[in-house]
Amino acid sequence: MKVLEKGESFEEINGDFQYSHTLIVYGFKDKIYHATSKSRYRCTADVKREDLTNSILIHPATYCPIFPSHFMRAPDPLPTNCYIKRPRLLSYDRIHNSCSPWQISERVLKEAEVCENLILHPHPNIAQYLGCLVYDGRITGLCFTKYSDTLMDRVNPGSRMKRDVVYKDRPLKIRDDCLNGVEKGIVHLHSLGLIHNDINPSNIMFDEDVPVIIDFDSCRPVGQSLEGVGRTFEWYDESVQYSLPSNDLDALDEIREWLGDNDMKRFKFKD
Fold first, then answer.
1. CA–CA separation, 31 vs 145, rounded Å?
2. Separation between Cα atoms, residue 114 and residue 110, nearest integer Å
3. Which residues pair with 72 in a beta bridge?
4. Alpha-carbon gap, residue 186 to 178, rounded angstroms
5. Burial class of residue 256, CB neighbours in 10 A (0-12, 13-18, 19+)
6. pLDDT digit string (tens) for 30-60?
7. Distance between CA atoms of residues 258 and 260, nearest Å
8. Which contacts of 91-95 are long-range, i.e. CB under 8 A and separated by 24 or more positions?
9. Residues 158, 161, 167, CA angle at the centre, nearest 5°?
10. Domain spans of the chain?
11. Fold for domain 151-258?
12. How far is the C-alpha of 228 from the C-alpha of 246, rounded, in Å?
């Protein structure tokens, strides 16, 4: 058994969020399963198969869409500086009996479609897409150039809440250059009729000191509904349900405030 993903689930009890169980995605004999455990683990090596309950076989069709022949395949062999983004399956237990059991596969295909557009219109502040990883006629991953670290890593390595961060250690060489680079990337996306919809410090990486926008699974054309689209807590306006340019520009303003020198922050988005 090989553990592929691990995450803890919490439930609200008497107004407090308390640990409920651990979610496990694991591979066994060339198949992938979703399961739960009442145990908590420091690392994936601690997970034992006998601890697991509610195991569900995850069929490849539910998370690996059919590869369209006109899409770009990743190079073979893959370059050494390649990052493979694979479908996240921890939520599979909630969707496999829902009315949309194919939603993970659909999200992968939507992101691949966005990236196919970006291939034709590259930009230094947008992650470089290398193509689809394909097995047995299905997309098993999306390949990108691998970057060093995120803005969150540099400014807030402890991943504290947004309002708990004070920008005093000057972890960015030139803060304004970083913000200007992110803005250029956003403007480029908007010129293609695309809105990222999840601009936040974890979705900004660095090519040395050049900021690069990553993660396009929430990216949608202008005006499209955002129903069912994942966005990052603290970094978006929960009242906005459509893909609009202001979604990205307001998020950039939020990052600008987050990186400000003033002790009293004036954030737009609720915590």
1. 28
2. 6
3. none
4. 13
5. middle
6. 899 999 999 999 888 889 989 999 999 999 9
7. 6
8. 92/25, 92/34, 92/56, 92/58, 92/62, 92/63, 93/23, 93/34, 93/36, 93/54, 93/56
9. 70
10. 1-58, 60-146, 151-258
11. Transferase(Phosphotransferase); domain 1 (1.10.510)
12. 19
Q: Which residues contact 46 (CB under 8 A, 6 or more apart)?
A: none
> Does pTM top 0.85 for this prediction?
yes
pLDDT in tens, 153-205: 888 766 666 666 665 655 677 788 999 999 999 999 999 999 999 999 999 99
Structure tokens at 37: 């455990």
Interatomic CA distance for residues 155 and 200, integer angstroms: 12
H-state helical runs in the chain: 92-95, 103-120, 151-155, 175-191, 245-258
Distance CA 230, CA 95 (A): 14
> Under the phi-then-psi rule, with left for phi > 0, alpha for psi from -120 to 50, and beta for the rest, what region is 54?
left
Rounded CA-CA distance 105/108 in Å is 5
Q: Name the one residue in this structure whose structure tokens are 């479908």.
A: 87
Strands annotated E in the chain: 2-13, 16-28, 31-37, 53-58, 82-85, 129-135, 138-145, 194-195, 204-207, 210-213, 220-221
DSSP-based three-state secondary structure for 93? helix
